[in-house]
Amino acid sequence: MTTTMNRAAAAPRTAERGGAPLTLDGVTYHYQGRRGQGAGVGPLTLDVPGGEFLCVVGPSGSGKSTLLSLLAGFLKPQRGQISLGGEVVRGPHPRLTLVQQEAALFPWLTVAGNVAFGLRGVPRAERDARVQDALRQVGLDGYGPRRPHELSGGQRQRVALARALVTRPGLLLLDEPFSALDHATRTTLADELLTLWRQSGVTVVFVTHQLEEALHLGQRVVALRGGQVALDAPAAQTSVDDLKRLLGE
After folding, report:
1. For 112, which of 80, 127, 203, 222 is 20 to 30 Å away at the CA?
2. How many other CB atoms are found less than 10 A from the CB of residue 133?
3. What pLDDT score does 102 carry?
4. CATH homologous superfamily, domain 1-6+18-93+206-249
5. Are 221 and 4 in contact (CB under 8 A)?
6. CA quadruple 135, 65, 1, 171: dihedral positive or negative?
7. What is the pLDDT of residues 46-64, one digit of tens each?
8. What confidence tens digit (pLDDT) does each residue in 104-115 have?
9. CA 245 to chain centre
10. What is the pLDDT of residues 205-222, one digit of tens each?
11. How many angstroms separate the CA atoms of 173 and 248, rounded?
């Protein structure tokens, strides 16, 4: 395969910094249609080391959304199992968090209140310090008192990232989080995400339609086709043309 430069590939795998290893063992999920078994995924077997940045690509209907729902615990595998840090995922898990295409902020809360939402039960002094640190990390220091309607689309997505990272998850799932943004903002946030990943050591599974984005961000890329793994390779050893040929684009 053609080799392409990749910034994320140079970063070490850093399980000791908090990233939880993720394992899929024969995971299968198929939707039932009128004529029997319908679209879905599986069987899928994958190992994602703690601290790795994995990108998942594939055309519409390839199983990306189903896979993400399974990883998030919204769907239960019909066969096989998913483990996070050695613990079987049976539903939404406290060590994982999901950032979706839309920031989905609570409009009645301030920016700080949105970021702090997942820290209920944490002592106030610690909660406030963690919120301020998270906002600083995403470039929104001083934005805590503002409301979501006062922010740009890129700023709202930064708040969503801060809300995800403030809980110090072992696994961060991202479902095309930059798809609604303009190219310049998307590029900036992608680079900022790489910086945040390197600082936190969190394990990342990033789902995207954008092949260039996957190769820029990921240490490793998995391509799905028809619910199956069509490619599982280091991003630095893969090119956009390789992926296009494989996926028939």
Report:
1. 203
2. 14
3. 80
4. P-loop containing nucleotide triphosphate hydrolases (3.40.50.300)
5. no
6. positive
7. 999 999 999 999 988 899 9
8. 899 999 999 999
9. 25
10. 999 989 999 999 999 999
11. 26
